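haha ok so turns out i had the wrong file open the whole time. this is the CORRECT one, sorry everyone. sequence first:
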Amino acid sequence: MDLPENVRRALEAAQEQLKSHHFDIRWVKPDNIHLTLQFLGEIPPADLARVGPALRSAAAAAAPFWIAARGAGVFPGIKAPRVVWAGLSGQVPALFALQQSVAQALAAAGFPPEARPFKAHLTLGRFKGRVRPADLLAALQALGPWTSPAFRVDRVTFFQSELRPGGAVYTRLGEAPLIMRLTDQEAI
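then structure:
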């Protein structure tokens, strides 16, 4: 899922504040930050044609919703972090429902589900070296409870990622709009 420019700038500001602590982190370029609903891994070219219809089917059953980036944390934990991320707030239950719909549609199209449970986040960077937990905790606390501008999720985008020495390059292969209409009762 692609992000609006004002949200990317808010994420970049959070990255800059964390960079001031000089951790050994490979930062994701702000233009490459995205929300992954399901990672498919290496797909044979012949199988790519099944992805679009599955995403369109899942998206057609979902209504647009609003979320925002909020706060930061690390995976898997403060003692041995591998990823620093921004969390999400807003209509997060709608995001989880969309992710489940995408996962089910892709499974029906023959793509295996991810083994790990979905954790809604935006990856800011990946740790290359060790970091003292107390230093990392202090940096996350100094960042504070920031929030990006809210943004409307109204489509699912299918990206191909290609790992290169300078970082991943993402190519948009397609997108599917969220088109379900809310009834007057559901919109309240």
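The helical segments are 5-19, 51-60, 92-108, 133-143, 184-187.
again sry for the mixup
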